[in-house]
Design a protein that fits this description.
Helix content is about 35%, strand content about 20%. The protein contains 15 helices and 16 strands. A hairpin with a 7-residue loop joins β9 (about 265-270) and β10. The chain starts with 16 loop residues before the first helix and ends in a 6-residue tail after the last helix. Histidyl-adenosine monophosphate binds near residues 114, 121, 282, 283 and 308.
Length: about 425
């Protein structure tokens, strides 16, 4: 136990961190280009927020939350997703008083007690965007287009966009009734969770992971067939925009997302051929959520992707991420005096914005050059007793092994000029 991480969690190792930096940089850059500002909310919230926001009868709330009571006897939950916390913060900080829409993005860990497998973890990372304050269908399409823009910049291929409308409080009750009629004589064969959902929220039965429930719901009336005029028009406009953006999509009348807050537009983006956890992102419109969480009646639309799943898909599709050299200069010093000189030089180079590394284990010159090679540095500075006597060091260009002597007091400016000052800042 002491040396084993909890099931479903990952250590992101130094060898992999450059991939994360790369991905996070792309996400932040794209978010900025589309006008989203970063919001950082706590990793835990009052449990009630998710019960109300995500929905009492969803798998997330019923089975997957990490909920605990703190020392003050409050029920808190590690956030399973980012939309409800964003909405809570939007209301609490009165962002609705600003000119709308408010476009926010977040990036951070989420927690779900899910059955772990490749691409599905109990602690995972999401990047999400939420555009609050407009019900323009063009915005729905833009959120989908933004997601596709992200994937294309990352080099992902073979993606499909599944689009649906899950209706609104006008047309939902009609669907609910039809669904109950359809399932009435099958109720006893549903899983115990879905039997409980039958009266409370039959739509959720369509999203059940149990094979038996999936068989029983085959051929059930789809919400998309029972949409009211407004919802139908909205869906048509979203499609018009997507076509104008040149984004291929499939209408999937059976698409039901795993969260209760959706109204009208719901979508999921999947990568073909990466196995069971193929959903690389999903989202939709949530026009009632803000009011339901105690705020004004303001609409919203958003989307989130899982970073682990994106990295896995990139790997499976053979997309390589360029890795940076760990250091630019290595200082190989031999003997006590030279080591002191080398340590001071490393400090000065770092302060000039270069990435400098040195030996701390009193290794031989050969071993130090090997270490420099491993770090893939551009230059190695060699300082030994002889060099100190001549007040100079040898600078070795690691590309062609050419060495030249440089006076100690010229080393900093020499290297800064060669490497390009601050190029790693
Ligand atoms: P979601 O579909 O539950 O939506 O999650 C979005 C994405 O997070 C998924 O497509 C997947 O890539 C990733 N993901 C979900 N669960 C896991 C897991 N256990 N392990 C690894 N990755 C996972 C939401 O969370 C909504 N809040 C999205 C949204 C934002 N809707 C409107 N605004």
């Amino acid at each position: 136990m002491l040396t084993t991480k909890p099931r479903g969690t990952n250590d992101i190792m130094p060898a992999d961190i450059s991939k994360w930096y790369y991905l996070e940089n792309v996400l932040r850059r794209v978010a900025k280009q589309y006008g989203y500002s970063e919001l950082r909310t706590p990793v835990f919230e009052h449990t009630e927020l998710f019960q109300r926001g995500v929905g009492e009868t969803t798998d997330i709330v019923e089975k997957e939350m990490y909920t605990f009571t703190d020392r003050g006897n409050r029920s808190l939950t590690l956030r399973p997703e980012g939309t409800a916390p964003t909405v809570r913060s939007f209301i609490e900080n009165k962002l609705y008083a600003d000119p709308q829409p408010t476009k926010l993005f977040y990036l951070g860990p989420m927690f779900r007690y899910d059955r772990p497998q490749a691409g599905r973890y109990r602690q995972f990372h999401q990047f999400g965007v939420e555009a609050i304050g407009s019900c323009d269908p063009g915005l729905d399409a833009e959120v989908i287009a933004m997601a596709m823009d992200i994937y294309s910049r990352l080099g992902l291929k073979d993606l499909t966009v599944q689009l649906n409308s899950v209706g609104c409080p006008q047309c939902r009750p009609v669907h609910r009734e039809e669904l109950q009629k359809f399932l009435a004589d099958k109720k006893d064969r549903l899983c115990p969770t879905c039997q409980g959902r039958f009266d409370k929220n039959p739509l959720r039965i369509l999203d059940c992971k149990s094979k038996e429930c999936q068989n029983l719901t085959a051929g059930a009336p789809a919400i998309a067939e029972l949409l009211c005029d407004d919802c139908r028009k909205h869906l048509t406009k979203v499609q018009d925009y997507l076509q104008a953006f040149g984004i291929p999509f499939h209408l999937d009348p059976n698409l039901v997302r795993g969260l209760d807050y959706y109204t009208q537009t719901a979508f999921e983006i999947a990568a073909r051929g990466i196995g069971a956890q193929s959903s690389v992102g999903g989202g939709g419109r949530y026009d009632g959520l803000i009011e339901q969480c105690g705020g004004p009646a303001i609409p919203g639309i958003g989307y989130a992707l899982g970073l682990e799943r994106i990295l896995l898909t990139m790997e499976q599709q053979g997309i390589t991420i360029p890795t940076e050299a760990k250091a630019q200069v290595f200082i190989a010093a031999l003997g006590e005096k030279a080591q002191l000189q080398g340590a001071v030089l490393a400090q000065k180079l770092r302060q000039k914005g270069l990435v400098a590394e040195r030996d701390y284990l009193d290794k031989s010159l050969k071993a130090q050059l090997k270490a420099a090679d491993r770090l893939r540095v551009q230059y190695t500075v060699i300082i030994g007793e002889d060099e100190l006597k001549n007040k100079q060091a040898l600078v070795r260009d690691m590309n062609d092994s050419a060495q030249i002597g440089v006076l100690l007091d010229k080393l900093e400016s020499y290297l800064a000029e060669k490497i390009g000052r601050g190029s790693n800042e």
